[in-house]
Amino acid sequence: MDHIIDSILNQIRHERNGYYIASSTVKGCVDIFLSLQTEHHTTIYKRNLEPKILEQSETFYSKEGERLLNSCDAPEFLKQVGACRQQIMTY
Question: At what angle do helices 50-71 and 74-89 cross, to 10 degrees?
């Protein structure tokens, strides 16, 4: 299972870095994790994948925010944040 989780995280990282990924394949893997439940009636997604996605997301967006703050003026920063938010909302 760790191999699959690492692959999903790598695909998310690649997409955030501007590369094309097979998002339907990633979605299919995530959907399987959502459908599988543990003995405590939580999903495998919630227990194993979500914490790692959230951790990776926090790291990425902290670095990206810092990069934008250091390289953009206020209007450009807001434009970039809006584009990033739009990308997130498509999922």
Answer: 160
